LLM class flavin-dependent oxidoreductase (Paenibacillus roseus), 912 residues
Amino acid sequence: MAKKLHLNAFEMNCLGHLSHGLWAHPADQRWRYKDLSYWTELAALLERGKFDTLFIADVLGIYDVYGNSKDAALRNAVQIPANDPALIVPPMAHVTNHLGFAVTSSTSYEHPFAFARRMSTLDHLTKGRIAWNIVTSYLPNAAHNFGYSEMMNHDERYELAEEFLEVVYKLWEGSWEDNAVIIDKNNRIYSDPNKVHKIEHNGKYFNVQGPHMSEPSLQRTPVLYQAGTSSRGKAFAARHAECVFVTGTDTSIMKRQIADIRRQAEEIGRDPSKIKFFTPLVAVVGETREEAEQKMKVLSSYYSHEGAMVLFGSGTGYDLAAYSDDSYLEGPRNHVQSIAERFSKNAPNPRTVGEIRQSLNHLRGTGLYVVGTATEIADQLQQWIEETDLDGFNVRQVISPGTLEDFIDLVVPELQKRGVFRKEYEEGTTFRERLYSADSGRLPDSHPAAKYRRQA
Amino acid sequence: MAKKLHLNAFEMNCLGHLSHGLWAHPADQRWRYKDLSYWTELAALLERGKFDTLFIADVLGIYDVYGNSKDAALRNAVQIPANDPALIVPPMAHVTNHLGFAVTSSTSYEHPFAFARRMSTLDHLTKGRIAWNIVTSYLPNAAHNFGYSEMMNHDERYELAEEFLEVVYKLWEGSWEDNAVIIDKNNRIYSDPNKVHKIEHNGKYFNVQGPHMSEPSLQRTPVLYQAGTSSRGKAFAARHAECVFVTGTDTSIMKRQIADIRRQAEEIGRDPSKIKFFTPLVAVVGETREEAEQKMKVLSSYYSHEGAMVLFGSGTGYDLAAYSDDSYLEGPRNHVQSIAERFSKNAPNPRTVGEIRQSLNHLRGTGLYVVGTATEIADQLQQWIEETDLDGFNVRQVISPGTLEDFIDLVVPELQKRGVFRKEYEEGTTFRERLYSADSGRLPDSHPAAKYRRQA
């Protein structure tokens, strides 16, 4: 039987997430990102399309490597302006019943005590439909916005993230026992104080006394998303993540990445099949391939090459404005090669900067890119899943909500017809229950968070 | 002409804000605080009643002075469990058009960069209906939740708050010029980079580079609320606040407090009439006074005396469990006297602990308390405004939403008939425009935040 696939919509509370320049397209509605109705309409659309979640990316600083300046990011609205990702969730939950919401939040700059309460509040308000995309932040400007003169190095960011998770696991899983809230109206006892615990965390980065301010929500710990590409990142994902993002354009490399993380998860006692892998998807669909290609041609004419170089600059640390076309990126060969692998398929290595620049002049991005009929797109999705052991896709919007409308009206029915995508939402109240067809919204006992539980 | 009065509903994202024990009353709906529909229904009710705002209190720790333990707070659900106050605002904005939302947030424990973006996001999503209740946090457990071994002293909390405000003013008022967002589709320029500025704040407590991540919202700086009772607090309110909370049961003391803050505001060049003063109100209304008194008698039978002592303990620092009834509170005479003044009218000084304990066994709280007909309540409201120069009231709920339903159905029409409360919302898109019958949602030039503006 073919593997069931999962679909997230890939969004951000801003004008231009990854489709640089498309805000200027007359049909693009993303200029309404500041309006509640943009988000409530989008959520209703996704629930009509039986999507798993709306995934909301985030950054805490400006992309200022390209041209050694913030200017190109501002001109092209590359992830700035960008508003808070969590505050749009409750109104979307108000107009939906099944759609999950994955909120990005960094472990590097906010305090775990307040963050844990925000996530518990969201899990209460959505009745258990919250996921958290764990990031450690890679923009130097974000460090400067939060009082650091320079960014922590990559491994230290992960060390801090490990402790951050320990703190929030203690708050979510360990502070309130399952039967702490007794609501005894006769004796006027709401919570049994013997079953609500301070956590008394004293660590290298955090000291947190507790107890957690929120009573237990349906999932307690939100479903955990993470993107791990470095070896430290992959180990972190294998330990903590329930959904993992992998990027790339080469299915054989992706297959190795996925297998590697599943193997590491198994080694520490987790069920490797419980970890779901996603890659970004750009799908432009037409009734015929010619129609799809024509559509893509028009969309591409709005694409901002400068915007792509802004993103590449801060994503890789390389300022392409400082190189000539016939030069090569300087740096360790492994590093340069991994960048080439992420940004284009079957790239000859080393590539000239001119070739890299050229490869960025395209909406395709770092995942699956398909232009064609619904049949062709469904074929490609299934083929990638077979070749890589992926579980699903993060569907990027080229124009919003047009891209998702087309996908939901044309591709989703084709996937449903093939029996690889749900026709109705699975049973279960919470997102975690639906994700695993499980009968509990709680983390399994094999997850490292479970050891902080304090039950009778 | 009689002064127009303003009304805020006084709430908190929890079971028991100040009406300790009433969660057990069969008509109380506050057990639904975790449900979106509790909040959307409440917001719709308040808009029907033409209220200015829903004011949402908050704490970041547990009340653990009474009995030197967290237990009584948990048993009585005294502000724990308590969820995040900001996340309930967007769904309420979704179902209303005029109601303002005042969100409490502390300057002591969260970082101003992320906080500023959250408030800008709320101001965008509500189209300019956001206020911020600035607090510095007074619970020792909150300090322990955020990594401090002991609480900063009162004056240092205010010093830090001053710098926190400087940072957020720079982000809200100074980072993006008014015409920075040009949305030039032909030339594909969303923001003019020359008009978006880093703030480069380097201070004692914070280093923040910027720019602000959010484009300017309608109000930019939210309407500023604050409760200042200490001399440091009053000076802070005179400098920054647009709405000030004063508490007490003696109108002559309140009159002096209000006059003192207005005078201090005038001394630094602010229009003293622009500062609006509010005090809490408990109003239980009946068709006859007997009916109201009977209603109050039933409500009072649910009141938790222990809950009141929990709040008193952390609010004052005195653990009444450690005193005998015939003893006196130890400490500086001024301090002990100011506590007595806050907690009961015409109190003889010094009072025995037994007398204090007795005075806490009552729903009246620290503001205006009236039980009677709509006419009697309206009379009292007008009398307090005349005697003290107050501008309005924070209406506390005894049971929710029953207290507000009664108030809106019976008292509001009486106030409208007398011409002292609006029959329809004032013109103006934003909360600040309606509050001042002004033609701009922006802070006036005389406010200290205005000096951070960077205009051509």
